[in-house]
Request: fold
Amino acid sequence: MPRLENRVVLLSGGASGIGAATARLVVREGGRAVLADRDETKGRALAAELGAAATFVPLDVTQEPSWQAAVAETVARFGALHGLLNAAGIGVRNDIEDCTLEEYRRINDINALGTFLGCKLAIPAIKESGGGSIVNISSVLGLRGAAYALAYSASKGAVRTLTKNVALHCAQMKYNIRCNSVHPGYIDTPMIAPRLEQNVQNMTGRQFLEELHPLGRLGRADEVANMILFLLSDESTFSTGSEFVCDGGLTA
Amino acid sequence: MLPTDMSNELSGHVAIVTGGASGIGAASAALLESAGAAVIVADLQAAKDGPGRFVAHDVASEESWKALLADVLEREGRLDVVVNNAGISGGSGNPETTTVEAWQKVQAVNSEGVFLGCKYAVQGMKRTGSAKPASKGSIVNISSVAGLIGSAGPTAYTASKGAVRLLSKSVALYCAERKYDIRCNSVHPGGVDTAIFNPLWQAVGHEQGKAFIGARHPIGRMAEPADLGELVLWLASDRSSFVTGAEFVADGGLTAGLMRRVPLASP
Reply:
C-alpha cells in the first residue's frame, strides 16, 4: 500500500535538492506534491515531469502573504493539506568578524522566519484536513556550531527549538499535527555546489566535506528524503518535537 | 596555579553587562564588580544605585554597539568580559498567533543583539591585545532553557534562544581557531525572578506567581538572579579557562528529565 495515499504535501524549496527529492517520493507513494519555490523554471519543470499529482506555486518564504497564497492554492487544487516540508533555505559562509547585521538578518529571515511562517500558515489548513505532519529541515549545524557558518548555524538552531515549540503547541491543542526537525549533514545538492569547488587545506572542497563524515562521502538528497517520508507518513505517528539526524555519522 | 583567594580575581579587568540594570544582568554586574572588575552596565535605562558605570545602550542597534565599544576603550582602556544578557520575552505568542512584527522584534533584541554583542566583544578584546594583564577574553551569552526545550517559552522567544545557543558555539570555535584566547559559552537559566515575568506578577501577584513557576522546577523554587550571577562570574573568570562553546544549565532540574505534574491551579 502506498505510504502517503491521497495525502497532500506542500514543500518549500520543492524545486531542487532535498525538497525535489522528497516531492518525487511523495508522488511515488500516492500523495500530491505542491512544489513551492522561488525558482519558477525549475519548479514548473519538475511539476510537469511528476504529472497530475504535482503542481507548482511560487513562494517567497519570508513573506506571509506568499505563504497564505501557497496554502490557499494547495487546498484549492487538491482539496486538503496534510503535510508540510520546510526545506527552503540558504547556506552562506561567514564568521563573527565578517558577518554583517544585514547578512545575519537575511539568513535568519529565510531559514528561521521562513520556517516559522510555513508552520503558522499550514497549521490551520492541516487541522482542517484532520491532522498531519510538519517536517522542518534544520542541519547538523543546528546541533553543532562552526567557525565559518555563524549565521547559518544560528538560524538552524532557531529552527531546532521552534520545531519543539510548534510540536508542543499542536499536541496541547489536540490538533493531531506532529512536527519534527531533520538534521542533514552535507548533502550533494545545489546549496553546497559552490563549496565543492573551493580548495581547503590541499584538498578539493568535495574531499574536505566528504572527510568530515565518518561514512566518507556526502549524503544524497534521496537519503534525506527517505527520512522525511518516514516523518510525513503514519509510520512515525508517535514522534513529535524530536530531532532526526541524517549525517553519515558527522555528529557522532 | 589555581587561585585560592578569589576576591580580586578580576582586578584590572573590564566587563560589559548588557541589560545590566536589572535581573540576571544586575546580579552579574554586582558580582563581577565585587571580584574586582570595572563594570559597564549597558542598558536602556539606569537602575537606582546600581553597580558599575552606566551607559545608555540599545543592543539591537549596531550604532549603539560601536559607540559603547569606543567609549569603553577610551574610558577603561580595555575589554575582557562581555555578558550578553539583555533580552525580551516578546509576549505570549504561540505558533499560530505570533505576528511577523513580534517575531522580528524578539529576534532583533535576543538574537541580533547577541550577535552584535559577540561581534563587538571580539573586536574590543582583540584590540585589548597585549595590554596588561594579558587579555583572556570571555563572552557569556544568556540563552534559556527555551533554547533547549520547546515548552519553555513563547514561539519567537524559543527560536531566538535556540539561535543564541548555536551562535555561541560558532563564536567559540572561530576564536579558538584564530587563537584569539577568547572563550564563548551559553547560559541556560530556568525560571528566574526577574522583570521578564512582570506580566505574570501583575496578573497573580509576585509571591503566588513565584510559587507557581517554582513548583514546575524539580528543585521546588525559582532561581534568584544571584544564582545565575555566580555562574556568569565563574564563566567570566579564568577559573573556567578550559571551557568554551559549551552550554551551562542552571534550571533547578527543569530539563533533567521527567517530573510528576504538580497539581496547581492555573494562575
User: Anything to note?
Assistant: Helices of chain A lie at 17-28, 40-50, 64-78, 101-128, 150-172, 193-197, 205-212, 221-232. The longest strand of chain A covers residues 177-184. The beta strands of chain A are 8-12, 32-37, 54-58, 83-86, 132-137, 177-184, 243-246. Chain A touches chain B through 46 residues (CB under 8 Å).
